[in-house]
Amino acid sequence: MSIEPTNLTAQLHHRAAGNPPSTLPDSAISNCFPDLELDFRNVWRRLLEGIVLHEASGFVVSAETPNERFAGRFLISVADFPTRMELRNLEGEAAGSAFMEWSNALADVVALHSGRPVPCQFRDPAAPDADPETVALIVRPMFVHSQATDGPTAAIRDELVQPGELTQSLCSPWQNDYQECGCYYWAASRPDYVNVEHSATGARGDKWLARSRRLEPYEDVPDITHEELFREWESLLRFIVGGRDAE
Amino acid sequence: MPSELLAQSAPLSADAHLVDSGDGLHLLVPNGNRLYAVDAELHARIDRLLRAGDETGLTALLEDVGVDAPRYVDDHPPHEPPVRALWLAVAQKCNLGCSYCYAEGGSFGGAATSMALQTALASVDLLFSDVHAADRVNLSFLGGEPLLNRPVIHAATQRAQQIAGERGAIVTFSITTNGTQLTEDDGDFFEENGFAVTVSLDGPAAVHDRLRPFRSGRGSYDQVIARVLPLLERQHRMQVSARVTVTPQNLELKETLDTFVELGFHSVGFSPLLRAPTGQGELDAAGLETMLDEMVRCGAEFERRVITGERYPFANASNAMREIHRGTHRPYPCGAGAGYFGVSAEGELAACHRFVGDEEGALGDLAGGVDRDRQARWLSERHVHRQEPCRSCWARYMCGGGCHHEVIARDRPACGYIRGWLHWCIGAYARLSRHRPDYFAG
Fold first, then answer.
1. DSSP assignment of B60-81
2. Given an 8 Å threshold on Cβ–Cβ distance, is A13 in contact with B67?
3. Which residue on chain B is closest to A107 by alpha carbon?
4. Low-confidence ranges of chain B (pLDDT < 50)
């Protein structure tokens, strides 16, 4: 017996032979930053014609003529929408800025300006005090246009991603992501900071990515590096087996 | 052909429906309106289970082949959806005397009235009451004959454009007109504002004149066409479509379709007359069977033209292709009473333009806004899971239970027609998606 999906809802529900349950939308993990099935961040890298961005920052990886000079700079706004948010500490003082996830930063740009040039501002890290430079770049439409519906389909346009790019930066939970998503992200399986003892001078406790199990003030504990995690995750992460640290 | 289609499209199960497209066998799974190509063996097994009424066996087989899925449509109505479309009955009066008119000569059974400017502007304010950047809303004008109250249309449009501009929202405009009052200036105005203009036309001259005369009895076709032609030539941002109400007196749909396609309408669509206040012109079972036959004739020409890449804007078919391709599945036939309301000349909110002046679909007024209690009751009661015999029909998430206005007044006399048409469209979709996949890919 054979059965093949024909229309879009059937295709979306289709689980190809050999694929795991997580390939269906209703059973997928679908955390898209960066995710276990595809890394949606990569869709944004070529949103602006003529430049390629890093998937998780405004860093310009490469730029075409006549805008080569923007390679190595940071994109800080598109059509007056900032790519970074100003941060403030609990006292309300300025505390630098942080990059916004692309969907938050640029969803309105896609909705309002697809196919049209918009002003884009770039800052040069080599000249942090210089004024940002502005250039007009065209926003690529994100979705394939359907003749039948005269509107966008759910398919992402070929120009936005090259083969392999959607899966080039997937999660690797025991290695990269323990380091990347350190701040309370893995709270259930890997609490950030435990056995905490408070005192007048501050707190001491076990930080989960510490090199040792000695109680240390939170700030002073040296983190395990990315490279160490990739090389020695089995011993460094110290899985708890039978109620004890596994050595 | 129609009686054959009626038999093939009969509902045997709520969970599966089979379609033989002529060059392939297909399974429609109503849960998500998913369409699959199946081989002869699977087709035969499903067919046996359907004919035996073996729901348990059918469920097991659908699980075996991997098409079981969580329910795409649950029992819950949307909770207080935002207003997204309003139809303003700007002129509850009309210069035509169509015997079947749902608005009973334009006045909905009351005195002839026009919407005051303040009422129209208050409607626009309601439309934008929960609108933010990049949201889309639609403002429509109809009557009666809306062009009998042109200044209010202009003022409401300008107000809507202004607010949309301030908010960064997107507003689209529609008008449904009998065409007798159209002017060149209207063309400028509609073009400038990107209107979707729908002209009610019931067929070629002799047919149209019989169904849509002036109140004096004189035919209106020549005047309508003379006034519409300049607009047809100027369509760029505006789209001018023809809408045909099908009664026992104008069942020659193919000739009508070809006439209007030839004239250059953006699209041409047909709706069966199922409910008229006077009862005149309603289609009975035999009429609906004839209409189905005619729709399939039009559809076959549509299919042929799509394959050869020619323009043939038969709206019923192109809309069906789009919805079947997407697998659109909905628990309601339209957004009436959810995000979409009709506004009477007096400022009362109705579930849609057809419920103006009808207590059955009353859902608040401009002064007090949407009556959320009545709306919740409406959406709960109108959900297709609460409709019979829809709950056991494979087409329920395609038709959504049928037009509320017609169903409430006349129950569901057209289910066979609707299923027959959808069954044919599924087959056409299966053929076109094989021969012209580019038509769907964009």
1. HHHHHTT---S-SS-SPPPSSP
2. yes
3. B134
4. none
